[in-house]
Specification:
- The protein has 267 residues and is an alpha/beta fold.
- It folds into 2 domains: 152 residues, D-Maltodextrin-Binding Protein, domain 2; 101 residues, 3-Layer(aba) Sandwich (D-Maltodextrin-Binding Protein, domain 2).
- The chain has 9 helices and 10 strands.
- The strands form 3 sheets. A 5-stranded mixed β-sheet has the order 8-7-9-6-10, with helices on both faces. It has a 3-stranded parallel β-sheet with strand order 4-1-5. Strands 2-3 form a two-stranded antiparallel sheet.
- The longest helix has 15 residues.
Length: 267
């Protein structure tokens, strides 16, 4: 996952943490009829997807709903743990994934992507930056929280290996099943920093003044809707995304969630 922002007093992480999450592909409900576009989404990733009460909201929810409407379909969203979300799609538990998922070469071996934004990654620390973290090199010998199954974890694991090869202490990467759990670990002092998509980091900082950015965003990566290879809906969804950019719909959605900086260029 990667770049965005969202709402709670003191982060209201506690409210998000009470949400029951479907953590495995096997638990995901089976897809519905042909008039319904069923998305798998890990709805613990504000501002892209999260719960307000029992309602799923966020930029991905709005984008997925708008795409389904353009296809003459109704969108539904099944909360599915990110570490099992591709397996759920391949098992036909849903028609597509919209969940802040980075379009990477490794994932393209399993699924096809329709990109709709481009997001970088950011480090988040406690306000005042007591650990003095400004760059990735500063993470040597420190602990960082991430959501399990994400490219954020893979990226830090690779950086840790580089540090060790250089004779320096590596990075202790601590994974959590929900992104909100990873952010909460920083708040409670269980880790030295949190690493996630820049829009998500911006959201946490907006909602909780005890958090702050550490350095500038890095490693921008396209974010896409994942579908099974050969799906006849791929060109239709590509056309819908392009039309949403051209008629301003995408711009309005991204602005609503403070994500305008992550729009694709030259669509």
């Amino acid at each position: 996952m990667n770049l965005v922002s969202r709402a709670l007093p003191g982060l209201v992480l506690a409210a998000l943490l009470t949400v029951s999450v479907v953590a495995s592909a096997a638990a995901a409900p089976t897809r519905q009829g042909s008039s319904t576009l069923t998305y798998c989404s890990d709805i613990t990733y504000p501002p892209e997807e999260y719960y307000q009460g029992s309602k799923a909201v966020g930029s991905d929810i709005d984008i997925g709903t708008a795409i389904a409407k353009r296809l003459g379909m109704k969108a539904t969203f099944h909360n599915t743990g990110f570490d099992g979300i591709i397996a759920a799609l391949l098992a036909k538990k849903c028609d597509a994934i919209i969940s802040g998922m980075n379009d990477t070469a490794a994932r393209r071996k399993q699924v096809a992507f329709v990109d709709y934004i481009s997001v970088g990654q950011s480090l988040m620390v406690k306000k005042g930056n007591p650990k003095g973290i400004h760059t990735l090199a500063d993470l040597s010998g420190k602990s960082v929280s991430v959501e399990v199954g994400t490219t954020n974890k893979q990226f830090l694991d690779a950086k840790s290996a580089v540090l060790k090869k250089a004779g320096k202490p590596g990075i202790t990467v601590v994974s959590f099943p929900k992104d909100t759990d990873a952010a909460a670990a920083l708040k409670t002092g269980r880790v030295d920093a949190y690493f996630g998509d820049s829009p998500v980091v911006a959201y946490y900082i907006e909602k909780d003044t005890s958090f702050a950015f550490a350095g500038s965003p890095i490693n921008p990566i396209p974010v896409g809707i994942a579908l099974r290879k050969g799906d006849v809906k791929i060109p239709k969804i590509k056309a819908a995304v392009k039309a949403m950019y051209r008629d301003g719909t995408m711009k309005k959605i991204l602005a609503r969630w403070h994500m305008s900086a992550f729009a694709l260029k030259n669509v």
